[in-house]
């Protein structure tokens, strides 16, 4: 697979795309969980940035197979093959546009992701040939973390505490950034100012391309 069209290149390019769309994305973060929306934005980014030589599908898998959130394919329509498999998750500090705490979802969400990530050893998935570009043959985790701050009530320490809490829980479960020994965030945007319903908010979005630390943990 062309390295310029690999998963990590798509990931970093997508972060830049989100940064350019920061006010729109930040406003949508107030509407509720954005996992599905961001997955489709990522799929469009894969298509547009590769000039159509890569195309991604959602929720791919037959009845007896794992339903994978994002499957990136290349080749021709008649002879396409799977080059990457990605499961997506969305962590957040608040429920919708409210002060209601959603941090109790973090561990449950990450445990679910741990069950989905593993070394993929099958030659077929959803009827397509699998030729993953990852040397480790990993299913990756595309993890988003959304922080909504009510400007008059919260500080930078509150924001960093939330992002650190997510990473600490991920570390306990054996996740690591794709090329590091522990989980890590990359920034899409920080402290985007949004005024809605006569109140000021400060909204941030970070993301990580994660995998599991070892084959032993991937089977847990």
Characterise this structure.
The chain is α+β, with helices and mostly antiparallel strands. It has helices at 7-20, 22-29, 35-49, 106-116, 156-172, 215-218; strands at 54-60, 68-74, 81-92, 124-125, 128-130, 140-150, 175-177, 186-196, 199-212. Strands 1, 2, 3, 4, 5, 6, 7, 8 and 9 form a 9-stranded mixed β-sheet that branches. α1 (7-20) packs across α3 (35-49). The model is unreliable at 215-220 (pLDDT under 50).
Structural class: alpha+beta
Distance between the termini: 30 Å
What is the helix tally?
Answer: 6
Fraction in helix = 25-40%
Mean pLDDT: 91
Order of helices and strands: HHHEEEHEEEHEEEH
Which range does the strand content fall in? Answer: 25-35%
Q: Radius of gyration in whole Å, from Cα?
A: 18 Å
Count of DSSP E strands?
A: 9
Provide the low-confidence segments as ranges.
Answer: 215-220
Write out key terms for the chains shown.
32% strand; disordered C terminus; 6 helices; 220 residues; globular
Layout: helices, strands, pairs:
Elements: H1 7-20, H2 22-29, H3 35-49, E1 54-60, E2 68-74, E3 81-92, H4 106-116, E4 124-125, E5 128-130, E6 140-150, H5 156-172, E7 175-177, E8 186-196, E9 199-212, H6 215-218
Parallel strand pairs: 3-5, 3-6
Antiparallel strand pairs: 1-2, 2-3, 4-5, 6-9, 7-9, 8-9
Offer a concise description of the structure.
By secondary structure, this protein is of the alpha+beta class. The chain is built from 6 helices and 9 strands.
């Amino acid at each position: 697979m062309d390295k310029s069209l690999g998963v990590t290149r798509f990931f970093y390019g997508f972060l830049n795309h989100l940064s350019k769309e920061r006010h729109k994305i930040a406003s949508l973060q107030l509407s509720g969980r954005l996992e599905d929306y961001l997955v489709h934005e990522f799929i469009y980014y894969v298509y547009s940035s590769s000039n159509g030589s890569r195309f991604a599908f959602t929720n791919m898998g037959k009845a007896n197979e794992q339903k994978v959130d994002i499957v990136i394919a290349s080749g021709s329509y008649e002879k396409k093959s799977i080059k990457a498999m990605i499961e997506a998750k969305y962590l957040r500090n608040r429920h919708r546009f409210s002060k209601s705490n959603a941090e109790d979802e973090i561990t449950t969400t990450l445990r679910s992701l741990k069950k989905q990530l593993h070394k993929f050893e099958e030659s077929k998935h959803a009827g397509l040939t699998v030729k993953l570009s990852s040397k480790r043959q990993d299913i990756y985790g595309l993890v988003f973390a959304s922080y909504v701050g009510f400007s008059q009530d919260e500080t930078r320490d509150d924001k960093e505490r939330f992002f650190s809490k997510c990473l600490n829980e991920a570390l306990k479960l054996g996740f690591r950034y794709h090329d590091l020994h522990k989980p890590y965030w990359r920034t899409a945007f920080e402290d985007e100012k949004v005024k809605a319903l006569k109140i000021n908010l400060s909204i941030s979005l970070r993301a990580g391309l994660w995998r599991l630390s070892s084959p032993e943990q991937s089977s847990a």
